[in-house]
Predict the structure.
Amino acid sequence: MLDSNYFIINRHAQKFSDMRLTPNAAIFLGEDGRPLDFGILPLRNSLYAALYCDEVRNVTLITDRAGVHNVVTILWYTDEGYTAGLEAMRRACGLTFHRQNKKLNRYAESVAEKLDEGVRLRVTDEVDKSDMITCPECGMLNPKGSTYCLDCGAEL
Ligand SMILES: [Zn+2]
């Protein structure tokens, strides 16, 4: 279990006691009330994607500053803090937040690496494969109950 909120940038973890939002940035403050190292996080145009996982109270952002991609993870140690923090960030960031499983950090890091290599990956919600059926013709995942494949039209 966590003993604090954590702000992690490029695998460097720091405790934070409060998050403040301005129109252009989220500011993470340490216990002394001062911003953490790299704790002023530009929002909007500097973000490539936002991910979250309720189970581990984790919000992970992929930032894009002049084509360099970094992964920033925010962990809350209470449900209340997480819920309020996630909602506030959703409003402030102005982009879609994608639900993911517990491995969202690793996923974000692999996406950031690909982006640095110039491969434009689109981040999506995690697919719950138990609710999907695989098309025998083309392999596309279709929602359970579909009669025909959404991609190739084959009968399922
Ligand atoms: Zn198909």
Q: What stands out?
A: The longest strand covers residues 35-42. Helices lie at 79-93, 104-116. The CA atoms of residues 52 and 154 lie 34 Å apart. The mean pLDDT is 91.
